[in-house]
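haha ok so turns out i had the wrong file open the whole time. this is the CORRECT one, sorry everyone. sequence first:
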Amino acid sequence: MKKLLNNNLIKNYLILTISLFSLEISFRLISGISIFNIALLRIFIGISIISLIISFILSWMSKKHSKYFVIFIFLACTIYTFFQLGFNNFIGVYASFNTSSQLGAVIDYIREFLLSFLPKFYLIFIPFILLVLYYIFLDKYLVLKLNKKFVLKHEFQYEPLVRTTVTIIAMVILMLGYKYTITNESMQDKLQTVSNEKLFKYPSVGSIVINQFGVIPYIFLDIKSLYVEAPDTYIFEATDDNIVYEVNREIDDTLWEELIANESDNELNSISNYLINSQITDYNEYTGLFEGKNLIVIMMESVNDIIINKELYPNFYKLYSEGLAFTNNYSPRNSCATGNNEFSAMTGLYSIQNSCTANVYRKNEYYASIFNLFNNKGYKTSSMHDYTESYYYRRTIHTNMGSMAYYGVQDLGIPYYTEYKNWASDEDFMTAAMDITLTDTSEPFMLWLTTVSSHQPYNISSVEGDKYLSITEGSDYSMDLRRYMSKLKTLDNALGILLDRLTEEEILDDTVIVLFGDHYPYGLKDATINEVLDYNLDDYESERVPFVIYNSEITSQKIDLYTSYINLTPTLANLFNLDYDPRLYMGYDLFSEDYWNIVTFSDGSWKNSSIYYNAATSEVTYYDKESYTLDEIKAINEKINNKMQISSLIIKNNYYEYLSNALKDLKDKKEIYASVDTVQENLLGG
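then structure:
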């Protein structure tokens, strides 16, 4: 026993296990994650395995060196955990090696990132401080005590072999126990959207992985995912949700059915089977409301409900109060929030968890995207953004989406800054955009604008942040909030320019303006936002953002449906009476009688007016007396998970390019055969 103690294997194992597990407990307490969960057993075993492996390696070193390595390893784990607390608080998701491009965003805003850390986050260093104090004051004392108590007359002759054997036996036992906790149903939350077995193979949803496996094991699972392909998902068949509906919208599936019958790739067919059996939403009273009109979609950078202010932001308020305003709209953050949310709005697909989807799959083509739908209707389409390609490859992404012309900040010829604290002016942006778009209005146009002025930082002086500080002069608002509101004023002035130019061209009545926030201003703390907004920002309420559809000829309406950007393209397709297949979108037409009144967040959480389901913790919160059965919640979770899985498969397989080309080839072949048959008939007849 003395020999085993002296080689540091057991000692370091106990120190690391206790320290790392205390770090996990601290993380959960700080994050508000329950510690009374069966997942803690899995986390403890996982920590034990990690500690045993590290301790075995350290056992071949001297005591002095192994002690320093233990301190270093635990410090590194503590810093990583501290970083994850801050990253999740700042960006809204946990950091992953699969989204390393987001690290650039943190580096650019390192000052804002560090300032965003809540005071309670620093409590995560308590276990590390206790470890250091142990080594300073208790380590030598305890070793002496143990040496006096465990004295052996004979030493092990083959101690290295014994050490290795003990380690292997312990490792096998721990791994078998760990496997049991992953595969056994009793060790999993009943409402969990992705099984622990699937999450272990590929950590697709960071928040659930950390809740079920722990923040330290997540490091290893995340690294593993860099070198392991995501596992095949389900082979989707028609389900109770995917049944045949009697509708007036007629879509000929003859070629698609033939394609499925002849396709040997199971993954492609699983996508096809799911989509072709999905619901076809019918025409409704809003179908064709804007048929033939121009369309301008504006994705507003970091805009939340603070902009709904008649006195400070009259131009936005005009559009909001005189248009169709959705009062329960959200823009759920995810990895690469702006680019991915823009992607989802344009395609009606969910982006892939832990992936900067817009960039990674920028070469994909989507014949059902918003641009291509309007292209097919004879519109002139274009897209513009008043910044460079530093974060997102929009020139490639938008072109492959079908945008006939993309204009970045250099193309627009407007002033911009390369330093991170300053952004181009949306006022200059809108002027340039209108100069280009309104040069020729002889044919209908569809224009997508992504603004930038209201982007963080807000806690340092900047051109747009300081320009309109006067509008909040004399208020009790904190300075970072005032700078944010100054930036919103720049955006509102840009909307004023838009309205003036459309009026001057006498096409305001013939133009539809759609506005939505890409995400809430995550450079501001919730407490700061609550200086203006009086509602609770928990349960993803911080991600509530405006969504407005405006045309000067319609009757204003406040709509309380729960929605997000995922529904944008199918809704506009219906309003403009475009030729589209509703089954190709994970979102819905908001005006359909069959609209599914639920908003889904990036980790699979969801809510409506009655209930909020937290996918990370599998907890349910009710807002009124209406209750859901366990089976009903499971059914909703399964439906959401299926939609997200199908979206991932569509994107990874570049499915819509495949489908478009395959259907076109089949159609061409049939036309050729038909023409040959006609020629033969004519010859025979002659």
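The two ends are 105 Å apart (CA to CA).
again sry for the mixup
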